[in-house]
Amino acid sequence: MSTFNASANGVYLITVTPFKDNGDLDLASTDKMIDFCLESGVTGLTILGIMGEATKLTADESRQYVKQVLARVQGKVPVIVGASAPGFAAMSELTKSVMDMGADGVMVAPPPTVRTDDQISGYFDMVNETLGADVPWVLQDHPVSTTVQMSTGVVLRILKNSPNCVMLKHEDWPGLGKLSAICAAIQKGELKPTSILTGNGGGLFLPEELLRGANGAMTGFAYPEMMVEVCRAHAAGDVERAFDIFDAYLPLAKYEQQAGIGLAVRKHIFAQRGVIASAAIRKPGPKLSALDIADIERLTIRQQKKLSALN
Amino acid sequence: MSTFNASANGVYLITVTPFKDNGDLDLASTDKMIDFCLESGVTGLTILGIMGEATKLTADESRQYVKQVLARVQGKVPVIVGASAPGFAAMSELTKSVMDMGADGVMVAPPPTVRTDDQISGYFDMVNETLGADVPWVLQDHPVSTTVQMSTGVVLRILKNSPNCVMLKHEDWPGLGKLSAICAAIQKGELKPTSILTGNGGGLFLPEELLRGANGAMTGFAYPEMMVEVCRAHAAGDVERAFDIFDAYLPLAKYEQQAGIGLAVRKHIFAQRGVIASAAIRKPGPKLSALDIADIERLTIRQQKKLSALN
Amino acid sequence: MSTFNASANGVYLITVTPFKDNGDLDLASTDKMIDFCLESGVTGLTILGIMGEATKLTADESRQYVKQVLARVQGKVPVIVGASAPGFAAMSELTKSVMDMGADGVMVAPPPTVRTDDQISGYFDMVNETLGADVPWVLQDHPVSTTVQMSTGVVLRILKNSPNCVMLKHEDWPGLGKLSAICAAIQKGELKPTSILTGNGGGLFLPEELLRGANGAMTGFAYPEMMVEVCRAHAAGDVERAFDIFDAYLPLAKYEQQAGIGLAVRKHIFAQRGVIASAAIRKPGPKLSALDIADIERLTIRQQKKLSALN
Amino acid sequence: MSTFNASANGVYLITVTPFKDNGDLDLASTDKMIDFCLESGVTGLTILGIMGEATKLTADESRQYVKQVLARVQGKVPVIVGASAPGFAAMSELTKSVMDMGADGVMVAPPPTVRTDDQISGYFDMVNETLGADVPWVLQDHPVSTTVQMSTGVVLRILKNSPNCVMLKHEDWPGLGKLSAICAAIQKGELKPTSILTGNGGGLFLPEELLRGANGAMTGFAYPEMMVEVCRAHAAGDVERAFDIFDAYLPLAKYEQQAGIGLAVRKHIFAQRGVIASAAIRKPGPKLSALDIADIERLTIRQQKKLSALN
Lengths: 311, 311, 311, 311
Description:
The structure is a homotetramer.
Chain A: E1 10-14, H1 27-40, E2 44-47, H2 59-73, E3 79-82, H3 88-101, E4 105-108, H4 117-131, E5 137-141, H5 143-146, H6 152-161, E6 165-170, H7 176-187, E7 195-198, H8 200-203, H9 206-212, E8 216-219, H10 224-235, H11 239-256, H12 262-272, H13 290-310
Parallel strand pairs in A: 1-2, 1-8, 2-3, 3-4, 4-5, 5-6, 6-7, 7-8
Helix pairs in contact in A: 1-2, 3-4, 4-6, 9-10, 10-11, 11-13
């Protein structure tokens, strides 16, 4: 059983939130998806992120969903909940609520309003104050969605000032140089041990990132087993195999990373794989066209051939 | 007693949310502030907007605050509640909750993610679906905060497609030309009657906007009586007096419109006028320096002299 | 005769670029405008900025215009040329060209691509390298147009690293606190003497900024004499008179600051005052409507009355 | 010999601009690179785009570079020159200059300031006026760099209003749906024949885009022969082979698409392949680390193995 702390590694999967065709929360599919994730070998779960359609849930539904996930996971892996919020009152309320239910920690990204180094760093001082002494948390560095550019120096500053921040979700772009610099700071003892999981482009740089010193991935993908196997091959010292596995999935992974329709692709494949009952997305959300579905089919067949050739 | 419908006019004041020095919601000051607003002659109130620190309240506090305001207003003027939300579930939840408590309508601005004419217009189709047939609402056009640029054509399209949208809060910048075009469309019968209230720069263009056909203002200012008197003078046909009153307040109004510290200025003056007990702002929020306070003092004394000269 | 160095003060006027009705560069009006500015008492001129429609000139026209201005000014006041450019080759080329013609310095703002403190500061290291040891320059801090947010710390860092940067054009918003902090750093000797001219909202905070320690204004306005007189009254210790003069012009200054049509308002008034022959703006550019012109007329008459009452 | 008109297809390669280690323009490498491109089978060239470091050249250097390219190409394929500019005077000047030298057309993207459908469409009316009746041009739709979101409707409107716009460089993201809609409009005769070349993510969706109806690619990549072969396989009806070739190059193509360091990767590989003498990039620009170079080496070896297995 893995724990959510600074030595966490492997794959923290960012899950989708299953809905029925009529738009209702699908709790049966939630159970099935959790089982699927655990069987895939993920070492953690992150829920209620952007890709979890968090903003499309009512407060009641959020609570219900978190409860369902936690009940099904039964502590087998840590569960992290997205807690970025426009205000600290809501962040505090949500955090207290999910920690009371049994979540292992929360994840926070900076709001688009902070821009300078001091503003960003000052914001996370307030986050620390808000979360308090007992909540371990993940710092999310994702400029593409937040528009906030955190220099390596600022990331280090935040991590130094945040005793309970045990993990960095690194998804700056391009990020390999930044990743190397942060890992070097840890290695040299300039920074406390911190788990570095990467999410760049839905894991599109995973094998390269592991070589730079990342401890694993935190992102979503319709084939979580790919990320698990890449991490395992890397950990076993078989770098070429890590790349071989990765390359087999790359064309579909790339297709799933299309901004705007990525979530629809992921849910479509999950539904096809029987992981969830319906690919329904709540409004506002994209719909796949027949051509999109044909693309996915072609890429899936090609992927299966490559995987067969691999094994 | 004024009603919230397409013939609304005068001043819908955007209120602050009073806190105690210790950061708690200050319900006694809320009552006092409501009384002050009603005595000032406002014809409506808008609560839980950006200037109302809405995002810094917990869900419980929001409900408590709305309840308190509605109880004190006793239906003397309409009360509108800000309902912009990152998702429709939250928008629906909040709207249902405040309408059940007795609010008169809600106000919705587009999210920063919609950019093209079709995306913007499509978004408000979903807003209409979300709010349903029974909730009258205000369309807020405020590019400075939303980054969404709605052309005159798009505003007209949304208003045409939205049977329950009875009011436009116009605060595009520069907006006089757009305002004239929208008012002309109503005059020519190309658009159903719609109340047009303006908020540009905290009312910094109020007398000019009334001349273009606006029906009044929806914004905040530490001296709501200025806006009330400007609207009354304009309605009475005394354009020069409308400008005279306005000009007396302009230097302080301008000072209060500084991005970032405006709310602190407004609460400081409200506290000094005895409208609220404390000027406290919840984090993250600005604090006035001694020099800022000296500026306000000087401008206040000068304002009083000008007002004396006027009457 | 004033010099462009760290002790510069007063009003560096940002000029418009006069065109004929047919769109050609109007050199006769250029001469007239320069004479008008000098008679108004400005202590410097800044040309080829955004409000000078710099990007709408061909390279030849730019050279011709700079030459004409310099020839007419005859060294009576310093002339600064806007040299912000998407690349250093163009910045270097333009700077060399205008300095050879006799300009006194250039002005540089950061490009929108730099975001973190280090990126911003690093950019200006390259600016220093590009401009070389002999070109005095102005640092322009204008987030509204550049989207670059420079903290006080970053501004101080750039000024410390830039031996030839003798002036800061301060137009952050809200900027009074930042202005106070920078002036304090100079006073305490933490920063070399630097001329601080302000441009906020076209000078909309000029009397307040002078009180905070600014040395004058660098901005444009159809009535430069207002800024000159405000600076003089302030320098003479008559703060109330500085505000009195300012307040008389404020309604029109505010009107001229409307984003999008401001330049059209300024050129319209200049044309009416006989400063330039035509109010023509090159495409893409705004046009005033009959209602806009009526607004300006009303505000002008009111302004004249206030000025008469003042003197 | 291919012509630049509405039936253009294949690969219009976006070239880099070669510099010597000392930063000077490298005209010998320019010749070598042109020869390499022509031998690779490209059907057109696009120069002085963002990836061509256009903004880092002086006006003289730009002219010299265009002249050198045109002299070497000798009309074997069309040469398009990037002409996006902050103002129409510069656009007109540059266009006239390069067309006089013998370029086949120019490419124009909208400036970040246009936002609404009408603003975007109106901007291109002025582009048409600026370019005049004799200059064929390419419309570049690249929201990632311009921040301008053009709906399908707006793209069609611009193409309809622009008699000399013969080509669309499609690189919206996600763009497959938009691409299908535009191709359908041409097929149905709702839009005149127009060449649609795609550039998404440096060609990361090329085989999918060809299936949607694109006529080829306009983008840069260190292995232009990949794009040429993919287009040929697709044209020959061998869709699976198009994907096979593509997949072999995808890991390196993905690596080269990293925002910020992509150009450095491309120039590094070009230098290693002997296409240019130096990988030098003018400031401001990224530098590859030893780890980056090791990544490229590994990916290159893996790519060679896959290509061997293919043939």
